[in-house]
Each structure stands twice: as structure tokens, then as C-alpha cells.
Specification:
Radius of gyration: 29 Å
CATH class of the largest domain: Alpha Beta
Number of domains: 3
InterPro entries: 26S_Proteasome_ATPase (IPR050221), AAA+_ATPase (IPR003593), ATPase_AAA_core (IPR003959), P-loop_NTPase (IPR027417)
Distance between the termini: 60 Å
Helix content: 40-55%
Structural class: alpha/beta
CATH architecture of the largest domain: 3-Layer(aba) Sandwich
CATH superfamily of the largest domain: P-loop containing nucleotide triphosphate hydrolases
GO molecular function: ATP binding; ATP hydrolysis activity
Keywords: ATP-binding, Nucleotide-binding
Order of helices and strands: HHHHEEHHEEHEHEHEHHEHHEHEHEHHEH
Shape: elongated
CATH topology of the largest domain: Rossmann fold
Strand content: 5-15%
Strand order of the largest sheet: 5-7-8-9-6-10
Family: Belongs to the AAA ATPase family.
Oligomer: single chain
Largest sheet: 6 strands, mixed
Organism: Prevotella koreensis
């Protein structure tokens, strides 16, 4: 539910803008100064918008700028008054500061718009406010150059607060960016539990080390005064055959520690065009900055593979991409996990920067038996001739392949309108999985 204060602040801004325009054009106004219009009272039991204002200790001027930045979304018509033209020039009043920012002709407010609303024609007051906003640790990050504006004047910087704040303020939910060319990563999660993950003792122990870093990593930096020696962030490499639980483990980590996991789509990141790979990576890291997300690079060989000997300009640029990636990975303050089938495929420069390398082995016979038992639906029955223990001993399959076989058997049973898993279907499913890697089964 949207914080009621959002709408109260919007009405307050409306009243302030009306008063400012009347004062500017020397029209009769109910107030002589916009400061006579009090801001809404913030209650202790209010929502996310109210908490954001209190936690960041935002003053009256800051609150005006904050709600003004959301006007293009909440009430774009409120800015129409700034479209009025100067009768002397036939152009819009430059002091109003708005710029055209959308294809539908709508305008977006700039820092200059906020300065006009707050200070009118008082140049000294505008300069003081500009210094405040551009040096503010939070507000300054909302200011950006307009792409079509050639001037470097700070008054033309548009107000563009992060998208995640809109989701938080309006819908009281965390911001989850959509998969697109501008953000080539997908949010992944799981509803399953650790009980369903079958790993050997050593691998599980290393996974627990990652959990410990999440819990204590920042504390040792701050409480034990190690921040100058230990960089923030944690980098892990998961390696081993496909289907052995690497991705499943990442989603379980995200679920347990309450962090969103994003799997980077390397097909949309890696480009044959010089400089494009860095740009695509920048989109991910810039949006992930300070979000505490888990970034998961699956099949990372394409991006983190061994560098080539420099033979031509393309090799040189390829190595520059690796250098750029090294820097971004090291600077990320959250958890980054890379996944590959072969550890030897990863460039040594990256390997040195991992705090931990976790090997995911093919499950042994005992582990495969557990996987088989836990994978079948409790609503199905196994044909009497099926000996799960023997199946587990005879056929070396990864957990992902076992799931594929179970799916094949279950669909076959349902197509017969029964719940009995037949041995013939089970063996056919295993045969299908073996054929993918050029193997055959013995009956």
C-alpha cells in the first residue's frame, strides 16, 4: 500500500508551485513567501516514503526536490504551467528549467526547476541551494546531464532518482529490474530447501563458509578495524560438471540470506564489437551498485576465460575487456559467484581474486540414491521391478540429469492416465541422458 505521505507531499508541492507562479507574475497570492506553506506532518507509523525522509534527515527543501522528481510519474500535468511562453521572446521561460524528456512531449524537471520553485529570482538563495543539493550524499546522485543538452550548467541537470525508490515508495516492495538490453540479467530464485540439495561434506562445508562471510564479513571490517586491509565484497568460483547443483546452490544461498540473485545472460553481454562488452557489463554493475544483490555469472568461461597473446588490435581490446572486468569485480561490494564446468578455463588473473573455489563433484552411488528418492513425486508409485539402489549404483548421473529422467517417466505415466513409474520408461529416460554425452547404457 502506498504511503499516504506521498499524496500529501504531492498536494503540498502543488500549493507551493501555484504560490511561486503567482508571486513570480505579481499576481494576488494567499502567501507572500512559499515558506508560509507548511510541509505535511510525518507520523511515526507512516510507510516507506516517510521512513526514507526521517532516516536520511531530509529538510523542507530536500523534500520539495524529492517529490518534484516523481511528478513526471505521479502527476505530469503539474508541470504544464512551466510551458507558458514569454511574450517578449516567444520562447519558454528559461528560469523555469524544465526540459523535454519523453517522446510524448512531456517535460521533466531539472535542478533549475527546483531552484526556481524554492528561491524564485533570489540568485544568492539559489546558489546556496545548488551547493546543498550537489554536495548532498544522496540527492547529488539523483542529478544527471540531459543527453540532448550541450550545456554543463548544473541548473540543467535533470532529476532522476533511482527506479528502486519508486517501487519502494509507491508499492512498498523492493525494486526488481526487468530483463532487457539495458539490464541483461534475470532474477532467479527457488522455493526448494537445503534438504533437497545433495552435496558431499567438503563441498557443503565450503558453501557454509560463504554463509559465514555474508553474516560476519562486514562486521570484521568495521568492528575489528580491518576495513583498510580487507576489501568489501566476496568472490566465489563454483566449478564442476553440469547438473551437479551449482545454480541450485546459488538460489538457496539467496533464499537463506534474503538477497536477490541475478543471473547475468552472457549472450547479451559479450559482444564482438570493440567496447560494447564493457558497456553491457557497466549496465549490470551500475544498477547493482549498493543493492547488495548476488551476481551470478553462469558458464562464465565466455567472459572470464583465459586471455590471448596479443597478435592484433582485437586481441589487445579483448585483454582490455578482461582488465575492465577485473576492476569491476574487485570493486563490487556484494557477493559475486562464477560458475564453470572446468576450473582451468578461468583466467589466472581472476582465479587469484577468488576468496573461495568450490568444487561440485558428480554424486556417488549413495548420493545418487538420495537424489532418486527425493525427486519422484509422493503421488506416484514405482513398478515393483525398479530397484532404486541398483539404479543408483549402475548409472552415473548428475542431479540435473536425474530430474530430467524423472520428468520423462512422470509424463509417460500421466499420458497413460496412471501414476505408476515403469522401469522401461526409467531406462529410456536414462538412455536419453546418456546419449547427450555420447554414452550408452547396459540393460
Amino acid at each position: 500500500m502506498t504511503d499516504a505521505l506521498v499524496f500529501e507531499e504531492l498536494q503540498w508541492l502543488t500549493d507551493v508551485i501555484v504560490a511561486r507562479m503567482k508571486l513570480y507574475f505579481n499576481q494576488e497570492s494567499e502567501v507572500k513567501d512559499i515558506n508560509q506553506i507548511p510541509p505535511p506532518v510525518i507520523n511515526d507509523n507512516s510507510g516507506a516514503y516517510s521512513r526514507f525522509i526521517k532516516v536520511n534527515n531530509l529538510g523542507t527543501e530536500d523534500r520539495i526536490l524529492l517529490i518534484l522528481s516523481w511528478v513526471p510519474v505521479l502527476k505530469p500535468q503539474l508541470l504544464d504551467c512551466f510551458l507558458v511562453k514569454n511574450s517578449d521572446t516567444g520562447q519558454r521561460f528559461v528560469e523555469f528549467g524544465c526540459v523535454e524528456g519523453r517522446s510524448d512531449g512531456a517535460i521533466v524537471p531539472t535542478l533549475g526547476t527546483a531552484l526556481f520553485i524554492l528561491a524564485g529570482e533570489d540568485i544568492k538563495a539559489k546558489m546556496l541551494l545548488a551547493e546543498r543539493f550537489t554536495s548532498h550524499p544522496i540527492i547529488s546522485s539523483w542529478l544527471s546531464y540531459h543527453e540532448d543538452n550541450n550545456t554543463l550548467s548544473f541548473s540543467n541537470w535533470i532529476l532522476s532518482p533511482p527506479h528502486e525508490l519508486l517501487d519502494l515508495f509507491l508499492f512498498e516492495r523492493p525494486f526488481i529490474p526487468r530483463f532487457s538490453n539495458n539490464f541483461p540479467a534475470k532474477a532467479i530464485s527457488t522455493t526448494r530447501s537445503w534438504d533437497e540439495l545433495v552435496l558431499d561434506e567438503k563441498t557443503m562445508g565450503q558453501v557454509n563458509e560463504i554463509k559465514m562471510w555474508v553474516k560476519y564479513g562486514e562486521r570484521i571490517r568495521e568492528e575489528w578495524q580491518l576495513s583498510s586491509r580487507i576489501k568489501p565484497g566476496f568472490r566465489a568460483l563454483f566449478y564442476g560438471p553440469s547438473g551437479c547443483g551449482k545454480t541450485f546452490t546459488v538460489t538457496l544461498l539467496g533464499k537463506e540470506i534474503g538477497k536477490q540473485v541475478f543471473c547475468i545472460d552472457l549472450s547479451m553481454v559479450v559482444s564482438k564489437y570493440i567496447g560494447e562488452t564493457e558497456k553491457n557489463l557497466a549496465k549490470v554493475f551500475e544498477l547493482a551498485e549498493n543493492k547488495d544483490w548476488i551476481l551470478f555469472f553462469d558458464e562464465a568461461d565466455a567472459l572470464f576465460g583465459k586471455r590471448t597473446n596479443v597478435k592484433d588490435s582485437h586481441d589487445r581490446y579483448a585483454n582490455q575487456e578482461v582488465a575492465y572486468l577485473l576492476q569491476r569485480v574487485e570493486d563490487y561490494k556484494g557477493l559475486i559467484i562464477l560458475s564453470t564446468n572446468l576450473k582451468s578455463n578461468i583466467d589466472e588473473a581472476f582465479a587469484r581474486r577468488f576468496q573461495i573455489m568450490v568444487r561440485f563433484n558428480m554424486p556417488n552411488a549413495q548420493e545418487r540414491e538420495r537424489l532418486w528418492i527425493s525427486s519422484f513425486s509422493p503421488l506416484c508409485e514405482l513398478e515393483e521391478t525398479i530397484n532404486i539402489k541398483q539404479i543408483a549404483e549402475d548409472y552415473e548421473l548428475a542431479g540435473g540429469s536425474i530430474i530430467n529422467v524423472v520428468q520423462y517417466c512422470s509424463i509417460s505415466a500421466m499420458s497413460r492416465e496412471e501414476n505408476i513409474i515403469r522401469k522401461a520408461d526409467l531406462l529410456e529416460g536414462i538412455r536419453n541422458e546418456f546419449s547427450k554425452v555420447g554414452k550408452t547404457i547396459r540393460e
